[in-house]
Amino acid sequence: MTVENILSKLVAFPVLGGESNLTIINWIKEHIESHNITTTLMPDEAGNKASLHCRIGPAVDGGVILSGHTDVVPVKGQEWDTNPFELTDKGDGKLYGRGSCDMKGFVACCLAALPNMIKADLKKPIYFAFSYDEEVGCLAGPELAKGIRTFYSETPKYAIIGEPSLMEPIVGQKGIYILETYVNGSAGHSSRIKQEVSAIHEAMRLILWLENKMNRLIEEGRLDERFHPAHSSIHIGLVNGGIAPNVIADKAHFYWDLRTIPMDNPFTIVKEFEAYCREREQELHNIFPDFKIITKENHPSVIHLDTKETDDVVDLVKRISGNLKLSTVAYAAEAGQFAAEGFQSAICGPGSIKQAHRANEFIDKNELVKGMGMMEKLIAEMSLSDFS
Ligand SMILES: [Zn+2]
After folding, report:
1. 7 C-alpha to ligand 1 centroid (Å)
2. How far is the CA of 134 from the centre of ligand 1 (A)?
3. 170-173 and 327-329 as β-strands: parallel, antiparallel, unpaired?
């Protein structure tokens, strides 16, 4: 099957992040196994989602993991000119469909290159690692990376995450952590503002604390110029609370996200914030004993990627992609999760992130050609007896 044939099969599975991916993962499994390669599924607890991994080539240390996700973002509310779940060639050099670029294009390249991987005399193995629920917070990545490290007797060295990067090697990614904070105050007539605890007033204080925390980090010179912006950002994206102008709000909540540069630890920031919350609770207890601030995870934190320019994976990805320029990104991906398991990791894949997540998502046919070119170069590299 050509890469386009495979891509059109993959796009036809409308598997959104958060939903069961068994249809698409079983199709991939059967496709790989029809080439006599053994695959391993890693189901979630409920058994309606699964990641897949497999090895092509010898069971020796030093292989490369090719990682992709099988889920896509929703199309609801978007104005598509074509059926998003039918790969459409309009004759303009682009292939339209949800996931065509993010990131079934890369998965299709992996599968289309499989026969050549098998035929080649690989000295070092290539692994496929296909996950689910990436688009709802990279939920399956950590377990999949760990599963590969523990399942095989040998240890892979590298992981290439094929997120759309126009085939540019991406070596840095900010950490992302999304939280929700709930403030429980006491209701009353607005004139009694000093006798009650307004959940809104307190929520605003917490929000300002967070903004000031971000500014303090900047003032302290905690900057990493590889990223834009170069500092960790703290942002409140949703606030809710209150019922009327003359009623003191007893409930308020807000959602916030932390996007941290590798030198900042999101958990330390949250710990400091929690300490400030306990201070506020202490201070207002005599006015309202049940005053409480609770912060919960909205999404588990997605760890940053901080690959050094001197790491071998950088040279490898430069060689096989043909691109020398390194970049960083601000979106979440599984790359940091693979790096956390000890695999040198970089993001590099066909298609542009600009086309991801929007109506009329497409991948340039040229990008698929480049993606296949990268696979061929990888196969050649891995067939060298002195590949390291
Ligand atoms: Zn993606």
Report:
1. 15
2. 7
3. parallel
Residue 338 Cα to ligand 1 midpoint, Å, equals 15
Q: What residues does each domain of the chain span?
A: 3-173+304-382, 175-302
How far does the centroid of ligand 1 lie from the alpha carbon of residue 149, in Å?
22
Ligand 1 mean position, distance from CA 181 (Å): 28
CA distance 203 to 183: 6
- CATH match of 175-302 with 3.40.50.10540: no
Distance 198 CA to ligand 1 centre (A): 41
Segment 52-82, tens digit of pLDDT: 999 999 999 999 999 999 999 999 999 999 9
**End-to-end CA distance of the chain, in Å?**
31
Beta bridge partners of 129: 53, 67
| CATH homologous superfamily for the domain 3-173+304-382 | Zn peptidases (3.40.630.10)
The region that residue 215 occupies, defined by phi over 0 for left and psi between -120 and 50 for alpha, beta otherwise, is alpha
Token duo for residue 377 = 């170069």
Question: So what's the pLDDT on residue 79?
Answer: 96
Enumerate residues 6+ apart whose C-beta is below 8 A from 330: 173, 174, 227, 228, 259
Low-confidence ranges of the chain (pLDDT < 50): none
